[in-house]
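tool_call: predict_structure(chain=1)
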Amino acid sequence: MATALTKFPSLEAASQAQLLDIQASLRFNQGDASNALAQWQQAEKLSGERGDRLKLRQAQALQQLGLHRKAIELLQKQLNLTDPNQLQKTTIAQVPALQILAESYRATDRASVAKQILERGLALAPMMHRSS
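tool_result:
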């Protein structure tokens, strides 16, 4: 008799991705950002639908490892931003990513860009409260 996991391989991949996500979160919270990053990257490969949240967590791990430029690259790609002038296209759902992006810019001595990003996040904040 076949189980649901053998009948639906995508269900197995989704379960594995969820498990990796949980393990990575635990590692990250214990200060092991390097292994957490690797697990989140692996989880992302298994699960396309949860990719945005996993990318956000990867960016946090990159920040903790001091790899701010890599975090910026990752988030710019996720947000589809090639320059700060495109910030007006960002949405409420992207506010957490904007915060991490701004922190990474600040850490790389690009305070003016960080300020622009934070201002966009602040402009979206009232809409977040209305939608919840």
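agent: Residues 68-132 form one domain. Proceeding to next step.
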